[in-house]
Each structure stands twice: as structure tokens, then as C-alpha cells.
Write a structure and sequence with these properties.
The complex is a heterodimer of chains A (about 325) and B (about 325). Chain A is built from twelve helices and twelve strands. By secondary structure, chain A is α/β, with parallel strands linked by helices. Chain B has a five-stranded parallel beta sheet, sandwiched between helices. A two-stranded antiparallel sheet of chain B has the order 4-5. In chain B, about 40% of the residues lie in helices and about 10% in strands. The chains are: A alpha/beta (about 325), B alpha/beta (about 325).
Chain lengths: ~325, ~325
């Protein structure tokens, strides 16, 4: 079973073998193999022209990726920690995202920005946050948040093929862990913008992304032992957001719990809630919608503080339990 | 129709070259006059950043470029766009919010790009185009296509981090890019004296191991000669050059500018050093064109602009219907 890091590497390798215009750039992606080892061995395989070590210049090299994308290349730009994307935000939010629309469709920007996000490594506030929701409010960006190695590989292959800028955010705690199913061999793509039903159950719908899918599955197992069956939906692409699967599921279960690691205020889960509340399935709800999200605080350092800042399995379990048992 | 190279070569090397340089400077001047006029008559909305007085640098630089060479431009970008060969009607139409405009009315004055002529786009963010030009130059190097990319920007952009990061990358990777700083003396109201502790802004190149050249940005010949050298250097894998074109913006920064930060005397003094008259006196000295020929060139520019305005005014207004579908490019 491949880990997330290996699956991402495999997708990049396949894309670079298939298309000469694909290349990888970023800080320490070369001989070092990337800060999290994602590109290990790729420099040796593809050489310095296709696995490009950049200076510590996020604004500069993300902008260079935009320019290269405009000129026929398909760059994959790795940002060492997604927190540093703030340095490059002009090129991401004002340039890459808007060029196709703003310039009347004459140009497009086929590039992928890959970056690790998330807490759990004791790296404190500037190396641990969930940044996905920074990007979901920028029209023109696609935002992908894979929850397991198999999806990561298929989604990244599609992201590289996509003629638009894609922000691809990998949870750093998932890098070294295998998923719950083997990673398919070969170059099979998973389309962007399609949610996945990871587990089916009649009593409750949980919508979660990234590492929260794994945690939600643990909760589902636990509840199953107690006779409660949970559907777990992973949107995988949070912008654009595919809601059809969630509508169908909520229509059946009548109960919805949404989960994200990032701070509660302004996250994509609020969009999920708003859409369900405003949809035809509203009448099917048997219980108030509940959300479990990170606290509205920067990620703290000490392990017990860091843990308290983001949802744990117990928090998701408690919320799920409350919905199902209070609202029978 | 496949786009053809515009006139390439020294502005004084032949009658045709002299006519070309003069025509394009006039086109830029007349275009900006037309924009100001359309604004004044309430036919154009939003804002505008005019480059009147700065016609020599886009014209001189673009005479050193092939059609496949690329440029990035700025919020004050009409001149770059015209000098690289853009269609005047589609430009005016864009400013008037018409369907046939370069951006279908979605971009306006600050966002015109023209793929056919290698124009990767104007940019509303100061220095926003510099890393993009550097990346296009990286693509050129990786694709081994020998294209050169010119990034036009103003003096203000030299104080943005984007310039520093891009200049360093261009230097370490010896990328085929030319950085053209149009120093028009003011970043909005902030003078270069206040914003820099440098006499020659081109010295900024030194910190990155990039040659820096300061030229009279109102002399189309001096601009061409510096650009030609830099473009050849870039094309021959010699890496980037920073060219500072010293010029002056006659008009306000944008339409809200009341010119509180400079004197009328200063503006009048710069008007005596204006690029078109300067070039005409050179043409006269070299006996390249007669007064009648020069007058005819000016008339041609005027006629082209009038035709472009007339056609644009009649064109269909941009339709909001397709907006949401225009955000993403359909998957190829």
C-alpha cells in the first residue's frame, strides 16, 4: 500500500513521463527530495531542468509558474508549507486565478500548486494551519483536498491535466500513512469536482475532507458497533463544490454533520450547510445540522494545546452521537 | 491570418523604419488623446492611466522584438500594447465595454492581452507582470525556442518584492528576459527622489548580477539601441538586463489626480523634451523624411484612431449572460 507521499510522487512521475511540458519547481524539491520527501528520487530521474530547485522566493517562483503556464508549460509548483502561500498570494489570487476570465479567455493558466497543510507536528502557528478556505473565496481557483493516497494520485493527475490553476492541499499527517484501499496502478484519473461516498449508512450523513475523512470513518466504525449507520461523503474538490451527492444522502438520512480541521468561521463547510438549508432536502431534515471544526485561534505549539485546537475523533463522535440519539 | 513581424531594426536605418517609429509614437499619443476625450464625454467608465509623453520606450523596445517575443505590461499599458502590434479597434472596444473588445469587456484598460502579438497582458498589480515574464522566459529556455520576453514596469515596481525575487531568479537561471523600467518620476504622487536613495535606478541590477543601463526614455533611438543589445544578450543565453528609460508622465496618475505633488513649471519643462518632436528633429537632421511625409504619418495615425473609435462605438455591448461560464477554461 502506497502512502500519500508515494502516491503524489507517482502521479507527478506519470504526468512528467506522459507530457514533456510538465515540470516540478519549488524549494528543496531537487536533491533534498522536498521537505516531506514527496519528490524523493525525481531529480535523479528527470534532471535539473524538470525538477527545479528555486530560491526561497514564493512570490517569484509561483509567478514564474504562472508565466511558464501562459507559455505552454504545465508547472507543478510545490510550496514547502502551505502557510507560505501567503507570500505568493498576489500571483495566486490576482494573477493565476483571474487571467483567464479577466483577459477575455485569450490565455489560460494550467498549473498546480501543491502544498502540505494541517496541524499535528508541533510546528506552531505558521507551519500548521489549514489554508484551504483562503482559496475557496477566489473565483478562478480549483481547490482539491485529498483524504487518502488513492484519491490523491487520481486527483493530482486530473489537476495536472486541468487547463486552470489548481491548489492541491495535502495533509502532512497523511504523508506517511497508507489509505484504506490500494492505490490503483497506471494513469487512471479521478475527475475534479465530483464527491465520493466513502461509506454508506442510513442514519447520519457526515461531510468531511482531508484527514477528517479518516477520523470520520473511525467514528462511523464505532457508531456501527452501536447500531448506528453513517454515510461519509468526501467532496475531494471543495471548489467547485459538488453538492448533489450530499443532497441525495441527506434526503435519505435526514441528519447532517459537517467536519473540517480549519477554523469554524468562514470555512467551506458553512457553504455545505447553507446549500442544504436552502435546498429541496431541507424538509427531510430530522435534526438540526451540526458542525465540528477547528477553534477560531492560530494553531498553538504544546501538544495538548494543539490537540485542543482541532477536531479529534472524540469530538466528531460526540457530535454524531448527539444528533442521532437526541433526534431519533 | 498569421501575424507578421512588425518593423524590426534601428529607427534611423531606413525611411521605412523612421516612418514606423514615428507612426507608432503618434498612434500611442492619439490613442491616449482619444481615451481622454471619450472619458471627458462620459462614454467610457472606470478609470484610465495615460502614457502621453512616454511613447518612445514602448516603440523603441518593440522595434527590437520579433512577433514571437513576448511582453508583459502594466496599468499604464496602452502604449506597450499598441507598439507590440495590437488591433486598435479591439483595444478601444474593450475600453468601451464591447463584446469585440480584447477581453469581451471583462478586463478594460488594465487587462488587455493579445496572444497573436505575444502580449501576455497588462496588469493592474504593480510588478505583477515581472515574475510572469520571468516564468515565460523560463518556458522559452525549457522549450529552447529562443524567444525573448520583455517586462515593462514603472519606477514604483522596483520597490516591490516581486521585482527582487524575479530579477534574482532570472539572473541565476540566465533567463531570456529584459526588464524595462519606465521611470516616469512618480509612483502615483510619490517621487523617485522620495522613494529611492539611488541616482540611477538601473543600479538596482547590480545586486542581482544583472547589467543595468540608464537611457533617455524620450529618445526612441537610445531606447532601441539599449533594447537591441539587451535582447540579443538574452537571446544568446547571456541572461537578463535591466534598462531604465527616464521619461515623464504628462497627465495625472489616473482621472482622480489633481497634480498636487508637482508644479506646472515641471510639467511644462518636460513637455519641451517630448519624444515625438525629439525624433522628428533627428529625422530632419538625417534627411530621412520630408515634412510632408512626417505630416502624412501623423495624419495616418489620427485616421486609424478615428476609424477604431467609430467602429467600436457602433459595436455590440458586452453581455453579462456568459460571465459565470467564463471563469474556468473548459477541460481540454
Amino acid at each position: 500500500m502506497l502512502t500519500m507521499a508515494e502516491a503524489v510522487r507517482e502521479a507527478m512521475t506519470i504526468a512528467m513521463e506522459e507530457r514533456p511540458e510538465v515540470f516540478l519547481m519549488g524549494e528543496d524539491v531537487g536533491v533534498y527530495g522536498g521537505a516531506f520527501g514527496v519528490s524523493a528520487g525525481m531529480y535523479e530521474k528527470f534532471g535539473a531542468d524538470r525538477v527545479i530547485d528555486t530560491p526561497i522566493s514564493e512570490l517569484g517562483y509561483i509567478g514564474a509558474a504562472v508565466g511558464a503556464a501562459l507559455s505552454g508549460m504545465r508547472p507543478i509548483a510545490e510550496i514547502q508549507f502551505s502557510d507560505f502561500s501567503a507570500q505568493a498570494m498576489d500571483q495566486i489570487a490576482n494573477q493565476a486565478a483571474k487571467i483567464h476570465f479577466m483577459l477575455g479567455g485569450a490565455l489560460h493558466v494550467p498549473m498546480v500548486i501543491r502544498a502540505p497543510q494541517g496541524s499535528g507536528t508541533g510546528a506552531a502557528a505558521q507551519h500548521s494551519q489549514i489554508v484551504e478556505n483562503w482559496f475557496t473565496n477566489v473565483p478562478g481557483l480549483k481547490v482539491v483536498v485529498p483524504s487518502n493516497p488513492a484519491d490523491a494520485k487520481g486527483l493530482l493527475l486530473s489537476a495536472i491535466d486541468d487547463p486552470n490553476p489548481v491548489v492541491f492541499l495535502e495533509h502532512k499527517l497523511l504523508y506517511k500513512t497508507p489509505g484504506w484501499e490500494p492505490v490503483p496502478e497506471g494513469n487512471a484519473r479521478i475527475p475534479l469536482g465530483v464527491s465520493r461516498v466513502v461509506r454508506t449508512g442510513k442514519d447520519l450523513t457526515i461531510v468531511a475532507t482531508g484527514i477528517m475523512v479518516k477520523k470520520s470513518l473511525e467514528v462511523a466504525d464505532k457508531l456501527s458497533a452501536e447500531g448506528i449507520e453513517v454515510t461519509v461523503i468526501d467532496p475531494r474538490t471543495i471548489s467547485p463544490l459538488d453538492m448533489s451527492t450530499t443532497f441525495e444522502s441527506v434526503d435519505l438520512t435526514g441528519r447532517l454533520l459537517v467536519v473540517q480541521e480549519g477554523p469554524s468561521h468562514g470555512g467551506f463547510i458553512n457553504e455545505v450547510i447553507a446549500q442544504v438549508a436552502g435546498s429541496h432536502v431541507f424538509g427531510s431534515l430530522k435534526a438540526p445540522i451540526k458542525k465540528v471544526a477547528g477553534l477560531n485561534i492560530p494553531i498553538p505549539y504544546a501538544p495538548q494545546l494543539e490537540k485542543a485546537a482541532v477536531p479529534q475523533v472524540e469530538d466528531i463522535y460526540a457530535a454524531a452521537n448527539e444528533i442521532v440519539k437526541t433526534w431519533r | 491570418m498569421a501575424p507578421k513581424d512588425l518593423m524590426i531594426g534601428h529607427p534611423l536605418s531606413s525611411k521605412a523604419h523612421a516612418k514606423h517609429a514615428l507612426l507608432y509614437m503618434w498612434k500611442i499619443r492619439k490613442f491616449e488623446d482619444a481615451v481622454e476625450d471619450l472619458f471627458g464625454r462620459g462614454m467610457m467608465h472606470g478609470t484610465m492611466h495615460l502614457s502621453v509623453g512616454q511613447e518612445a520606450s514602448p516603440t523603441g523596445v518593440c522595434m527590437a522584438l520579433k512577433i514571437t517575443d513576448q511582453i508583459t505590461s502594466t496599468h499604464r499599458g496602452h502604449g506597450h500594447c499598441i507598439a507590440k502590434g495590437a488591433d486598435l479597434t479591439r483595444m478601444i472596444a474593450e475600453l468601451l465595454g464591447k463584446e469585440i473588445g480584447y477581453c469581451g469587456g471583462r478586463g478594460g484598460s488594465m487587462h488587455i492581452a493579445d496572444v497573436e502579438t505575444g502580449n501576455l497582458g497588462a496588469n493592474g498589480i504593480v510588478a505583477g507582470g515581472i515574475p510572469i515574464a520571468t516564468g515565460a522566459a523560463l518556458a522559452s529556455k525549457l522549450q529552447k525556442n529562443e524567444n525573448v520576453v520583455v517586462s515593462f514596469f514603472g519606477d514604483g515596481a522596483l520597490n516591490e518584492g516581486a521585482f527582487h525575487e524575479a530579477a534574482n531568479m532570472a539572473a541565476i537561471w540566465k533567463l531570456p528576459v529584459v526588464f524595462v523600467c519606465e521611470n516616469n518620476k512618480y509612483g502615483m504622487s510619490n517621487s523617485t527622489e522620495k522613494a529611492f536613495a539611488l541616482e540611477n535606478l538601473a543600479d538596482r541590477g547590480l545586486g542581482y548580477g544583472i547589467p543595468g543601463v540608464t537611457v533617455d526614455g524620450n529618445d526612441v533611438v537610445a531606447v532601441y539601441e539599449a533594447a537591441e543589445q539587451a535582447v540579443q544578450r538574452a537571446r544568446n543565453s547571456g541572461g537578463p538586463t535591466l534598462i531604465e528609460c527616464v521619461t515623464y508622465r504628462w497627465k495625472g496618475h489616473s482621472r482622480s489626480d489633481k497634480n498636487l505633488y508637482r508644479t506646472k513649471e515641471e510639467i511644462d519643462e518636460w513637455k519641451t523634451k517630448e519624444p515625438i518632436a525629439k525624433f522628428m528633429s533627428l529625422i530632419h537632421e538625417k534627411n530621412l523624411l520630408t515634412q510632408e511625409e512626417m505630416d502624412a504619418v501623423q495624419q495616418q495615425a489620427t485616421d486609424e484612431i478615428i476609424a477604431a473609435v467609430n467602429e467600436s462605438v457602433k459595436a455590440k455591448a458586452a453581455d453579462p449572460a456568459g460571465l459565470e461560464a467564463a471563469v474556468f477554461n473548459a477541460v481540454m
